[in-house]
Amino acid sequence: MDRASSISTSLLVVFIVFLAQLMLANTANSTTVYKNYDANGNLVFSDEPFEGAEAIDVKPIPTINLHLPKNIPTSSTTTAPVTTDTYQSLDITSPVADSSIVNTAGAGTVNVTSSPGLQSDHQYKLLINGENQGTQSSNSFAITGLFRGAHTAVAQIVKGSGEVIKVSAPVTFFVRQHSIRH
Q1: Fold of 89-176
Q2: The pTM is what?
Q3: CA 119, CA 140: separation in Å to the nearest integer?
Q4: Exposed e or buried b per residue across 60-99, where buried means at least 16 C-beta atoms within 10 angstroms of its C-beta
Q5: What are the backbone angles phi and psi of residue 25, rounded to the nearest 5°?
Q6: Which of 8, 36, 90, 137 could form an S-S bond across to 168 if both were Cys, CB 3.0 to 4.6 Å?
Q7: What is the maximum span of the chain, computed from C-alpha positions, in angstroms?
Q8: CB under 8 Å to 84, separation ≥6 — which residues?
Q9: Structural domain boundaries of the chain?
Q10: What is the tens place of the pLDDT at every residue in 18-73?
């Protein structure tokens, strides 16, 4: 009988601790706001109770953490082009700046163009959110791992040694992916 009493007491303690944690969790996830109308009929809210005010429990707004770009090249962080620049322009033609790509399943294509065309000993290099996506002679890059949110693309023309000759203007585009719920 003594052992049964000990188990009952242990269960009671565990239950009380569980209830205390549950109550603390609920208070940490909501805030009490007080509302009432003033003499002029204006709605007044306060975080401190006052006479005649109605208490309202406000739950926090659900948020998500977005994939944030790393090391986005800016004019101050990109390598300056060599002064013997033979290229008049280097542009990202697709995706267009501030456009949205919908339901890509994390894949997309970035197209670049230069004037004049790429010389035989030079290559295009693509950076997405500051991360190297590859160096190649083709002006079309197949990209994977694009999460929903904003992404910034920068193209470069590089020599075989990796020396940067020309840098495009950054192009920001957005990936929209619908969730299963929507």
Answers
A1: Immunoglobulin-like (2.60.40)
A2: 0.53
A3: 16
A4: eeeeeeeeeeeebbeeeebeebeeeeebeebebebbeeee
A5: -65, -40
A6: 90
A7: 94
A8: none
A9: 2-58, 89-176
A10: 666 666 655 556 788 898 888 888 888 888 888 888 988 888 777 776 666 666 66
